[in-house]
């Protein structure tokens, strides 16, 4: 019952999407029928091919290519480039026509210097045509095919140029589907001039029927719903990949932006008109772009169930580690991430290619060896990292110079061709048959079919088969390629080794404490002895000074001075001389 209800919901959602898409397509219906009917109004036309292929005569060698002599003045034809630098409202951005120019806009500008003061009226004829052939039969019944100008459409108008310098706009018929040849004839009192160019109107200039608020709302709802549905579908697929891979590619979203933004900026600047034409011709191309970006962002933000593992390696085989236990022992700490995918515990690394390989079941399976025996599931070999940097800690085999062996996962195309063993006497047919049978056609042909399908869908949906083929390359590669399963082998030490290391660390800390205590005791004794010696020296100097004072008083024969010298106390706190 649940399955049937899900099917009903899926069918209802599909019908709703088709209805919305049909409404959007109806709103976006473009007026191409009128253009094609007017362009094919005449089978051949009043002009010969030689007349229409005439480019015209340049006024002088130094003049721009589209400048023509007209009486005592000049006429020219200019256009606004369909690039980021072109602006129809700014004559400073206009360019002169040259041979081979294709006009992407719906107007050109006829200008000239036709005199001073008086206006000049010009009869302008614009002929749209294509190159074709027609069959001619002579009097003898011989039929030959000759080139001719077919599908001619002629527009006539009158342009008035004021005296001195002036420029007028000539509207062109749009041609969205293909490029058409255009020949312009201008004729007036000063003579006539001719120009020839091609017109292939940009899709951004094509009108669409969005005349009411309801039409605009239909567009908005259609784009919103289709974008949401495609985003959810891509996220569902990506989440399944994420669960099977154990971890995403590991790149933050800003890194994707740093890679995409410069490329996008260069693409827009270099191919501004091509990008706008592509979006205008197939605006729904933005839907998968937005959905894909949202999916990539979601993959970057999704959490994972990886475990951060630290491997500590005390290399007792190093030359600096002496056999008697002295010297220095190098200690290396390596960091890895592991995940359990499909019941297999293996290593995971950052990268798009490893991510896709793990999603196909090619995770490098982790195997633990202790003293030559495989003990992958032995919990006694690991130590809990607690709240530290690592979730789990292993001690590598200290007597192994290289205890870590890792072969990363990846993709291979070598299985697509298996070189056969050919006998020297084999014939050419046998060799060719053997070579053909050595090719994995069951992989190559579907991959080519995927690319061709992308080409067809790109041509139908966005009118760009190359873009569709490029999008199809990824699924084609994943179909034809074969994920190569990696492996990881670690030689680890038994749990007792970790206990020994911890005991050594604790013993070293205790020895350090004893050494610190002895050091400070020695410094205290040295400082105490130094203070005693200084006090003794001061006392001796004081006694010698007092003796000198008494002897000087006796030599002078002054009873008062002698009495003062005898009565003075010793600075050291001793008794007077009378005592």
From TrEMBL:
Keywords: Membrane, Transmembrane, Transmembrane helix. Residues 555-579 are annotated as: Disordered. The keyword Membrane applies. The chain crosses the membrane at residues 216-234, 254-272, 284-303, 450-479. The keyword Transmembrane applies. This is DUF2207 domain-containing protein. It comes from Halobellus rarus.
